[in-house]
Amino acid sequence: MNRRLLASVVIAIGFLWLLQGCARPAPSASPGAQAAAPQGAQAATAPDKVTIAYQPGIGYANLIIIKQQKALERAFPNTQFEWKILASGSAIRDGMIAGQIQVGAGGVGPFLIGWDRGVGWKLLSSLNEMDLWLVVRDPAIQSLRDIKPDMKLAMPAPDSIQAMVLRKAAQEQLGNPRALDNNIVAMAHPEGVQALAAGQIAGHLTSPPFQFEEVQAGGRAIVKSFDYFGKSTFNSVFMLQSFYDQYPQFAQTFYRLLVEATQLINTNIDEAARLLSEDQEGRVSAEQFKTWMTAEGVSYSTVPHGFLKYAEFMKSTGFMSKAPTAIHELVLPTLDSGD
Fold it and tell me: Going from the N-terminus, what domains does the chain have, and what CATH number goes with each?
């Protein structure tokens, strides 16, 4: 009886040892492969649907190239991509807060205000540096001192990067950054071009290529952003930190595609311009896009510049409660330099 019991115990122990051996993971080919396995198991590669929002203009050329090449669709064939063009960075910020937009692109102003107010987003990549102009047509307007209280100055939104440029210029020319706040009217870039031509507004603080069209039509630039903030980023791509953490492979692939699109602009402008013309269904020629994209004050780079300078000014004028002290506070792991 005791021998039978002992035999049963031995068999049971052997069976448990066998099960434990089967449950043990097989050794990996390398330490790197073993470390990578849990990450792949914990995070999905990409969401089922991604909405990407940007605004009109050649400031989003890098994004438009990715869109036209269908590079994201090839990299993530199981993901549905929706591209939206909105009128302002404020609208994009509101859409991201509501969870309707996963990837946004816009100017420095709305991004910094969102960061300050706890939106929880960071920069995936910058897109360019562009000099932004306040264009007027009235020969009597030579500087901001000539702007009367009833004159309207159009820009995308009161918290846009254009609005911050106007306030910095007002601070230096008029001694008060908010001196022209009552003159500001929100207007999308294309509508602003038409309104300036029709004499409905006194000035339009916009971006390339709209400011180029206005000057070609007889306008003059009386304020330029580079004169007040130096050569600095105009547009960037951003996403919520939580979205990056959930889909790091998607975000890193997106960044790589932005780098490649930027390289295309800088090394093969003819092809880049062709893709932008294709996006416009030929309404604007490739040659025209090439002229705009190679104009003075226009360059394309994924490295952010000028954010700390803008943030310092915005905090000093009450548009932000705090300012970052270093660029790493604003960027995702895809970026490791900038200012």
Answer: 49-130+232-329 (3.40.190.10), 133-229 (3.40.190.10)
